[in-house]
Amino acid sequence: MPTIYVINPNSTEAVTAAIDEALDPLRSNDGPEIECLTLAEGPPGIESQRDVDSVIAPLLKRTAALENHAAAFVIACFSDPGLHSLREQSARAVFGIAECGILTALSIAQRFGVIAILPASIPRHLRYFGAMGITARLAGELAIDIGVVDLANEDLTLSRMTDCGRTLRDAHGADAIVMGCAGMTKYRPILEAALKIPVVEPTQAAVTMAIGRVRLGGAAKTFGGVP
Predict the structure, then answer these.
(1) Distance between terminal CA atoms of the chain?
(2) Domain annotation for the chain: domains and CATH numbers
(3) Cβ atoms of 100 and 202 closer than 8 Å
């Protein structure tokens, strides 16, 4: 059965496990299979441009070994590390969770807000949003100031995410929220219930798009030219 490989580019297994659990509603008996993998060579959390750049080479090596078994690849990091390099390398469809999460938010809201993990992440994200050409519909981005590894502190994480979400909704005019880190995955239903506006978990958004492409027979890439 064709497999969508969801690659967590950091080395924190707990993040991969949370992603895997969050994707359960998207799994079906008739496939495609969804397999979540951890990039052992990655840092514990991708929290800087240097971290982003450092995982590209091992990510390309890992996905090259999976190429013949893959229906599609999903890069499960909100910085979309190696997205364009992997699209050049692979004959499969490749999805970045930041790109997919934002596109999903744009389909359900006029203005979206983003919750980041660290303040230092925001300039990196804003560069990406500018390259995507969607800053006019960005209401704002706020950080909870918690690193990837410490996201496991549920009370602190959820409290800060809720505070940021309310500020983005009430002060910045966000109609939907995008969670700006794959490590936030398990908090989506609780956060959405608290904010009363749509909350997009970007890995779920990316895998949903990947499933659609694969099931409709469009697993081959279209970026960079004819498949």
Answers:
(1) 21
(2) 3-96+204-215 (3.40.50.12500), 99-202 (3.40.50.12500)
(3) yes
Name which of 45-54, 82-91, 154-163, 216-225 the model is least confident about: 216-225
Give pLDDT tens digits for 177-208. 999 998 898 899 999 999 999 999 999 999 99
Tokens representing residue 173 in the block: 């005019």
Residue 41 token pair: 């060579």
How far apart CA 58 and CA 42 sit, in angstroms, is: 8
Region of 133 on the Ramachandran plot (φ > 0 left; ψ -120 to 50 alpha; else beta): left
**Cα–Cα dist 148/46, whole Å:** 8
The tens digit of pLDDT for each residue in 76-124 reads 999 999 999 999 999 999 999 999 999 999 999 999 999 999 999 999 9
Give the amino acid at 24: D
Residue 222 CB coordination number (10 Å): 11
